[in-house]
Write a structure and sequence with these properties.
Layout (H helix, E strand, L loop, with lengths): L6 H17 L2 H8 L7 H9 L18 H14 L5 H15 L2 H12 L5 E4 L15 E5 L2 E12 L6 E7 L7 E7 L5 E5 L8 E6 L3
Parallel strand pairs: 1-4
Antiparallel strand pairs: 2-3, 3-7, 4-5, 6-7
Helix pairs in contact: 1-4, 5-6
């Protein structure tokens, strides 16, 4: 069994190294540690132009349509150069959740915009209890005449401060499997986002949803 990189993957690795060596210098990384957002739109758009934001998004939704193995090659290089920005939260936590669990309408509406760098999306999973198993989900989504009303708190929301949407994992009933995911705009009434102080200063947030 061949476990090495194929030609296309080696090209991806090489191009990533060349790009990051130029755009993700030590000075840039250090400057972003104290930057309000933690990254610049200029570099983020260059990342989008490389096709990286749509790397594993299917082609029918505006992506490149590569595999998870290709993503790991890119993430390894991003980690080597410590690229700042909401890549993991938007592409993996957000984009792949939409691709796997979203409706066809949501995929068509959101995935191309992720690929083009137009929106950032994150995931709200962890509860104040620290639990992420189905029975540990305490955030509720109550059925109303207009849809659902969401109440609860999510902790350690990665890059919530620069996200346009949060995918909220919430309980819709009393059974263990009564769990759904809701796409909530971060600027919706009732959504409060507060940056948490972490040892790594990695910009994780508390997000409170009050009758959203």
């Amino acid at each position: 069994m061949e476990l090495g990189l194929n030609e296309a993957q080696q090209m991806l690795k090489n191009s990533a190294q060349e790009f990051l060596e130029t755009e993700c210098t030590v000075d840039y990384v250090r400057a972003m540690e104290t930057d309000e957002n933690g990254y610049t739109q200029e570099v983020w758009q260059k990342v989008a132009e490389q096709g990286w934001l749509g790397l594993i998004i299917p082609e029918e939704y505006g992506g490149v349509g590569l595999e998870y193995q290709d993503l790991t090659i890119l993430l390894e290089e991003m980690g080597r150069y410590m690229l700042p920005g909401p890549y993991f939260s938007t592409v993996v936590l957000g984009g792949m959740t939409i691709n796997d669990a979203g409706t066809e309408e949501q995929k068509k509406q959101l995935l191309p915009r992720i690929s083009e760098g137009q929106i950032n999306i994150t995931l709200g999973l962890t509860e104040p209890s620290g639990r992420i198993d189905p029975l540990g989900i305490e955030t509720t989504a109550t059925k109303t005449s207009e849809g659902y009303e969401i109440n609860g708190t999510k902790l350690f929301v990665l890059n919530g401060h620069v996200s346009d949407y949060i995918l909220v994992v919430a309980r819709t009933g009393d059974q263990e499997t009564d769990i759904s995911i809701f796409n909530v705009p971060m600027d919706a009434d009732g959504v409060t986002q507060t940056l948490l102080k972490t040892i790594a200063s990695d910009r994780q947030s508390e997000v409170i949803l009050d009758n959203v």
